[in-house]
Fold each of these.
Amino acid sequence: MVARGPAKGSSAYNMVDAVLRPLVIHTPRDLALPERGASVRRHRRSVVARRYGDQVANIFSGGGRELDLSNGGTEAFVEVLILAVSDLASEAWDFRFAALLILQDQHVMGRGAVGFHLEEVDWGAVESERARSKDFVLRATALAASGHRWSELGYYPPRVHDYLDRFRIMVEHFTPPASRGPHHHFPGPDGAATASCARHRILSGLPYWEGCFLCNQPR
């Protein structure tokens, strides 16, 4: 399946634009997001990504800690989290966090062009909301680490336990800020991933693109 981009000017289009534009070095042919029906795939080098020789690390960070993952490591890390979040999500914020994870799909966004910072997440307006949001991320991480639905991946992610453990420690030690934003890189309520892929029972890329991460894997 070829992922199709959102309509130009829509809230989903603006969200993808907000995520990508600050993170990339533009070349002339890369300046515009696609029109309706065009692929969302990017051929850009992310400033967030860290290059070690020929290897690129996508960075997930928060509270002074970093999780630097290769493209393959990022794919496994994000996919097991999406499987867990798809089955745990129940509140509006959960589906916004799911959308953030979906936007890390390198088959759509481009290799070496993903990653996020916990400081950029809208954790909530009051302390109880922030505590609940943080707890959801930790519960999803624990469920992912249990091997939840890994059999559906089509491969075994051998190092993902370490990635999840490091991410868990990062989140545990992170104090969600009280600031209300703006949070340009965190999906808003109208960008939440509330649709489920009927075939795979995984939260899909709507409103950004059609299908879930299994739908968009190369054949």
Amino acid sequence: MQTLIVDSPAAVGQYAGAQAAALLNEALYRAERARLLLATGQSQLELLQDLVRRPVEWARVDAFHLDEYVGLDPSHPASFRRYLRELVADIVPVAMHYVDPDSPDRLARLSALVDEAPMDVALVGIGENGHIAFNDPPPTSPPRRPTSPSSSTRAAVRSRSTRAGSHPSRTCRSGRSPCPCAPS
């Protein structure tokens, strides 16, 4: 493991953006398409803003949305779909695959796509209480079924959110494994 100490969130974003772009380009050198897993939240903001400015053949990238609140309209200020659309999909021509927890059919199709192959690059943050995305339930909990994140995860999301609006208490994530970047 490498530890990097930098002066600002922008410096972290620039470093991580450069690393992610290099890994995507390596994956695209080896294969026709690259698979990118995207989490959301304050820890991802500077990274995503930097990454979309980097030279990557974005039209050859399949980007997968990791998790979403249940019952939240995609245009709601707290929606992770909105966050990824505004920060990534509206800027670069990725094939974005969003979590739609209110549509069991679309969620099943997304989970099948996520499970087809490992991700080439996974951009996820680790929350203050150790959560990755909404992976608070034990690994035996079915991921395609809505779950409730722990109270500490909900509090961390609310306290760090720069997006207005209330946050629903139910969440859903894609893939069968606790984290789609890990083997099932």
Amino acid sequence: MHLERIAAIDQVGASLRSVIQLNPDWEEIADRLDHERRQSRARGPLHGVPVLVKDNIDTGDRMLTTAGSLALTGAPAPIDAPLVARLRAAGMLLLGKTNLSEWANFRSSRSSGGWSGRGRQCRNPHVHALSSRKSAIQDLTKCSRNSLNGVNCTPMLSRTEMVWRHLLVCAFDLGVRRSSLTQLSEELSLPVSTIHKALERPRAIGAVRGSASGLRVLDPKRLLQLWAALRDLNGDIVYATKVPMAVNEIEARLPISAIPTAYTAFVQHEGRNLVADYEQVLVYADANEVERRFRSRHGPANLLVLEPDPLLSRYGKVAPRCQVYADLFNLPTWQAQRFLEALDGKLLRDVA
């Protein structure tokens, strides 16, 4: 089934080019895993689950590891990377490798996201004319392994936005403006190189200052406005539907794991709504779980679901105020403007 889907939308049809190579030994491995399961000898929780890994993760098999570069085509890696070894021990079926920005985009500050010399341009699954900041990989297998983000579906936010959010939560909600590259790397489970790159633009506009030994958020307001201006809220919507209920009824029936943002989150942070009535509910949640409760209907959507990133839940059951601000900033309604003005007054006005 997975190979048919890869062939249908990745290699022909939409030609997304998100899979750079299929494992030539997949069939033999699958037969062996099926035989083990029939004999009740499952290796672990991932026994027989097809997985794709990024092309900058070593696999000690006949597949190449090139980081998307033609310069590294040739001999395969001699051994598995530790994470691949652990996945194999858990029983996963390594189906292939995925395309990526060549050298993980360590080529130029203006390079095209999702392009590599070996895999060509990976295309956006929703708008084919655009490059793919978020690939269709999660739609082709049960899961994919990103070298930086863990075993999960593609996260809602970019890693850069995760870094900015963490700095803003510390500054606005905890009163902490000092940190370091190593501390941020440990707190966010991201490489130091990723943290460093995420801070390039905040440094350039004077929002952040520092070096490897220490960082200081000089202007949280400027950093927040930078995030809000660059936030791609529409691109992160994974499910939208019209629900024939009042917003308070929708909010009451959401899954317990859903994390509200925008209007609902503002009201929960403040304890009451003194701004304006609103007509939409926005949440970070599992789209399938929400769809089971609210079936798809035609008409103007009043329930919007966004993909939660793996770090969001650590900030509580409601999106942090800085994220609520960035999301409201990107909603084109007069209610959003009213809520944004109220939040601006509470969150930003007295920040130096």
